[in-house]
Amino acid sequence: MDKKLFKEPRECNTLSWISGESKLELHTPIFDVMRIDRENQDGTKKGSFIQLHTTDWIVVIPWFRDEEGVPRFIMEQQYRHGNNAVTREFPGGLVDEGESSLDAAKRELLEETGLKGRITFLGDVCPNAAFMDNRQNFYLAEDLELVAGQDLDENEEIDVFSIPVEEAVENMGRGVYDNGTMMMALGYFLRYAKDHPYLMEKIAP
Q1: Is residue 82 a contact partner of residue 170, using CB atoms and an 8 Å limit?
Q2: pLDDT, tens digit, for every residue of 168-195?
Q3: In this structure, are strands 71-80 and 85-89 parallel, antiparallel, or unpaired?
Q4: Domain range annotation of the chain
Q5: Quick one: how far is CA 184 from the chain centroid?
Q6: What's 72-135 look like in SS3?
Q7: Does residue 153 sit in helix, strand or coil?
Q8: Helices marked H in 9-75 — which ranges?
Q9: b/e string for 117-129 if b means 16 or more Cβ within 10 A?
Q10: Residue 113's closest CA among 184, 60, 72, 44?
């Protein structure tokens, strides 16, 4: 196929729409449903659009090397009400009001796993730009130390375990690894690992 069949993309600012009236349609404990009037810049397209307003999220990828030299993740397994199934995930949660995403990452890691570690920011992304306005932040945790037991919310029930990095990479997006946010987290990890290859390498004990 000839690439010239497709035009170059326009500048992003020429595609931005102008926001008008915003109205709260529904308030829930974890998000607000907003209805926002918008039109394109030349006024030829306009409409009323739904936007999900919620707090930012964080995911922490805890990494360590075991006594046999195998790189491993600390992961969790819990029941999720959205898909009515048990999923395998990295630790994560919501950023509280007035809290930085870094502090939320440290807090959630400690609460869910009892671990502390050296935290590195990997990046952030909009989890679904079609209708959500929040950011999903990703962090890597290394030099892990188990300092406490779990401190879970009332209705949380989380199993914590370790798994080889290679196994998680192979299975992410399949079966019990059925969580798109974790696939995004792994993508950020793999991009970071290209410049830090020790994260993927097995070494002799």
Answers
A1: no
A2: 999 999 999 999 999 999 999 999 999 9
A3: antiparallel
A4: 11-53, 57-198
A5: 6
A6: EEEEEEEEECCCCEEEEECCEEECCCCCCHHHHHHHHHHHHHCEEEEEEEEEEECCCCCCECCC
A7: coil
A8: 12-15
A9: bebeebebeebee
A10: 60
CATH number at 57-198: 3.90.79.10
Q: What is the pTM of this model?
A: 0.93
> Taking the CA atoms of the chain, what radius of gyration do you get in angstroms?
20
91, exposed or middle or buried, with CB in 10 Å at 0-12, 13-18, 19+?
Answer: buried
| Distance between CA atoms of residues 23 and 65, nearest Å | 50
CB atoms within 10 A of CB 148: 11
Q: pLDDT for 142-151, tens place per residue?
A: 999 999 998 8
3-state SS assignment for residue 58: strand
> How far, in Å, CA of 133 to CA of 153, rounded?
25
Which amino acid type is present at position 35?
Answer: R
Which structure tokens are listed for 67? 């006594």
Do residues 144 and 74 make contact, with C-beta atoms less than 8 angstroms apart? yes
In one letter, which amino acid is 81? H
Rounded (5°) CA angle 156-161-165: 125
Q: Which residues of 64-87 are buried (b: 16+ CB within 10 A; e: fewer)?
A: bbeeeebbbbbbbeeeeeeeeeeb
